[in-house]
Automatic annotation (TrEMBL), chain A:
<protein>
    <recommendedName>
        <fullName>Sulfate transport system permease protein CysT</fullName>
    </recommendedName>
</protein>
<comment type="function">
    <text>Part of the ABC transporter complex (TC 3.A.1.6.1) involved in sulfate/thiosulfate import.</text>
</comment>
<feature type="transmembrane region" description="Helical">
    <location>
        <begin position="97"/>
        <end position="120"/>
    </location>
</feature>
<dbReference type="Pfam" id="PF00528">
    <property type="entry name" value="BPD_transp_1"/>
</dbReference>
<feature type="transmembrane region" description="Helical">
    <location>
        <begin position="187"/>
        <end position="205"/>
    </location>
</feature>
<dbReference type="GO" id="GO:0005886">
    <property type="term" value="C:plasma membrane"/>
</dbReference>
<dbReference type="InterPro" id="IPR035906">
    <property type="entry name" value="MetI-like_sf"/>
</dbReference>
<feature type="transmembrane region" description="Helical">
    <location>
        <begin position="12"/>
        <end position="36"/>
    </location>
</feature>
<keyword id="KW-0813">Transport</keyword>
TrEMBL record, chain B:
<dbReference type="InterPro" id="IPR008995">
    <property type="entry name" value="Mo/tungstate-bd_C_term_dom"/>
</dbReference>
<dbReference type="GO" id="GO:0015419">
    <property type="term" value="F:ABC-type sulfate transporter activity"/>
</dbReference>
<keyword id="KW-0813">Transport</keyword>
<keyword id="KW-0764">Sulfate transport</keyword>
<dbReference type="InterPro" id="IPR027417">
    <property type="entry name" value="P-loop_NTPase"/>
</dbReference>
<keyword id="KW-0547">Nucleotide-binding</keyword>
<dbReference type="GO" id="GO:0015697">
    <property type="term" value="P:quaternary ammonium group transport"/>
</dbReference>
<dbReference type="GO" id="GO:0005524">
    <property type="term" value="F:ATP binding"/>
</dbReference>
<dbReference type="InterPro" id="IPR050093">
    <property type="entry name" value="ABC_SmlMolc_Importer"/>
</dbReference>
């Protein structure tokens, strides 16, 4: 007879059970219905809908713009986190609060505001139009909307880790003769790397699924500025549930593959450092 | 030669951390900066390193003014209290860091770097641990890695900020003895900061006692203990008692008790003395025994003297009963202004 290992932490069985049940109800069951729904159509029909030229263009835009926006946020979000952690200045808490605004704002509001700014006759757009740069109703506009909604993810992921890196690591590197860029590349970046990657992945995932803020600024031209979530909504409006779920399935698999890759990178990194 | 600090002052906001510090470290010397927290000792060390810059005054290395030079160009080895090792690098990569960040033309070849790392690992008695990560080492081992990393760049001076502060007592003791041996072998001019007087007295050639941003005394350990330059030094280093006295015609009086000769101007003053410089004597100062316990073959007592808040400590040959009255007479004391 084996005895269960005793632990001071109570209720592993109970909490794990609750965790799994909760995840199932909230995440897994809804997602699996997507697969079930789309499984209703034959493989040929599925391929025809999910890989139609229009759908492929939409995937390309959604994933491409989300990647670009996440990359922009990785750079500038890190900068914002850096300033918030390293310097004490008047209005720091105010700046910190501004960072979270994209979380709080209804995304449609953000979309309308962004369109007003970047349209050819908008505040910023009017200065870009003579230069031949069009932002609203192009893929650039889509990217800008995704940058907006993704910013908090990077800042909030990097901030605590940067706090933890501490000034003395930078000072130690400097005392050993390293210049500023070397310190950043060899000391700070590796230390905040995992957090940065997490923030990047979250911003990316949010960008892929983003709908509200994008549809106003995108213009929604099929093959050009139509994002995949919009295509799904379009299918739904035509009562083509199977078609909608087919596209959703492809998106789900792509997003899952990318998030899994990010997580595996983290695991590999951590194993290398074997705490 | 060595390190020369002249008239260094530093203010943080409205807090004056250092007031006009003058200090020099001779070549090959092991200097301790000792003081309570807030005394400015760490600020002074960081200014010498180039991690902070003074508002006034100069820092010179071997007679060369380096005041405006940043830490990366000063050629000092700096060891931090919390080790500050790069967690994502192996021990070997940590030690090699200072060599690998050099511009290509000054950078030693890979094989040469590897040889230096092995040499340094031997020096700090961690041979074969080059492939580990910092998280896999104990505190004492990490601090030795930090030392090897600082030594790898062949610094002109070694600066250590509370190097044993994060270690437990036993490791602390072993490591500081080892560090003293290493210093003697390398002959590197070194300055370390500590708030632990025992550490400063055991390790340093000279001890710099600091308080409130000024240097109270610079002297070899024995002089710091036996001939403190101020009441602060007497009180901070070692155990002490302080007794208000009046000096009249070259003698110190506590009320109507004559304590002995005192070289001080007439007037009120304080007599400072160590617990081991006290005997029980019928003509001494009456005190009520609060506590008596054995210590080093003698009896350490705490006794209350009328009119003085802090109980006196004294080491006596015989053990009095708690509550009894003893008469205490310091046979060696120093007079400082009240």
């Amino acid at each position: 007879m084996t005895r269960a290992k005793r632990s001071v932490l109570p209720g592993f069985g109970l909490t794990l059970g609750l965790t799994l049940a909760y995840l199932s109800i909230v995440v897994l069951i809804p997602l699996s219905t997507v697969f079930l729904k789309s499984a209703g159509m034959g493989p040929a029909d599925f391929a025809r809908v999910a890989f139609s030229e229009r759908a492929v263009a939409a995937y390309r835009l959604s994933f491409g713009a989300a990647l670009a926006a996440a990359a922009v946020n990785a750079v500038f979000g890190m900068l914002v986190a850096w300033v918030l952690v390293r310097y004490r200045f008047i209005g720091r808490r105010f700046v910190s609060a501004i960072v979270d605004l994209p979380f709080a704002l209804p995304t449609a509001v953000a979309g309308i505001a962004l369109t007003a700014l970047w349209a050819a006759d908008g505040w910023i757009g009017q200065y870009l139009a003579p230069l031949g740069i069009k932002v609203a109703y192009t893929s650039l506009g889509v990217t800008i909307a995704l940058v907006f909604v993704g910013l908090p993810f990077v800042v909030r992921s990097v901030e605590p880790v940067l706090e933890d890196v501490g000034r003395d690591l930078e000072e130690a590197a400097a005392s050993l003769g390293a210049g500023r860029f070397t310190i950043f590349r060899r000391v700070i970046l590796p230390a905040i790397g995992p957090a940065l990657l997490t923030g990047f992945a979250l911003a990316f995932a949010r960008g892929v699924g983003e709908y509200g803020s994008v549809i106003f600024i995108a213009g929604n031209l099929p093959y050009k500025t139509e994002i995949a979530p919009l295509l799904i909504v379009t299918q739904l409006e035509q009562y083509d549930y199977a078609g909608a779920t087919a596209i959703a399935t492809v998106m789900l698999l792509l997003a899952f593959a990318m998030l899994l890759a990010v997580n595996l990178t983290q695991v590999w990194r951590r194993r290398r450092m074997e705490r | 030669m060595g390190i020369t600090v002249t008239g260094v002052a530093k203010t943080f906001g409205s807090f004056a951390a250092l007031h006009g510090i003058d200090l020099d470290a001779q070549p090959g010397e092991f200097l301790a900066l000792l003081g309570p927290s807030g005394s400015g000792k760490t600020t002074l060390l960081r200014i010498i390193a180039g991690l902070e810059f003074p508002d006034a005054g100069t820092v010179a290395f071997d007679n060369e003014d380096v005041t405006g030079r940043p830490v990366s160009e000063r050629g000092v080895g700096f060891v931090f209290q919390q080790y500050a090792l790069f967690r994502h690098m192996t021990i070997a990569d940590n030690i090699a860091f200072g060599l690998t960040v050099r511009p290509r033309r000054d950078r030693p070849a890979k094989a040469e770097i590897a040889r230096r790392v092995d040499e340094l690992l031997d020096l700090v008695q961690l041979p074969g641990l080059g492939g580990r990560y910092p998280a896999q080492l104990s505190g004492g081992q990490r601090q030795r890695v930090a030392l090897a990393r600082a030594l790898a760049v062949e610094p002109r001076f070694l600066l250590l900020d509370e190097p044993f502060g994060a270690l437990d007592a036993k490791v602390r003791k072993d490591l500081r003895r080892w560090l003293r041996g290493l210093h003697d072998r390398l002959g590197l001019t070194s300055i370390f900061v500590t708030h632990d007087q025992e550490e400063a007295l055991e390790l340093a050639d000279r001890v710099v006692v600091m308080d409130h941003g000024v240097i109270e005394q610079v002297a070899p350990p024995a002089d710091i203990y036996d001939r403190p330059a101020s009441a602060f030094v007497f009180g901070f280093v070692g155990e002490s008692n302080c007794l208000p006295v009046t000096v009249r015609a070259g003698r110190a009086w506590h009320h109507d008790i004559d304590l002995g000769a005192a070289e001080a101007p007439d007037g009120p003053a304080n007599a400072w003395f160590r617990p081991h410089d006290v005997v029980a004597d019928d003509t001494g100062i009456p005190a009520t025994v609060l506590l008596a316990r054995p210590k080093n073959g003698l009896t350490r007592i705490e006794a209350q003297v009328a009119g003085i808040d802090k109980p006196f400590e004294a080491d006596l040959a015989t053990a009095p009963a708690v509550g009894a009255t003893v008469h205490l007479r310091p046979f060696r004391f120093r007079i400082f202004p009240a």
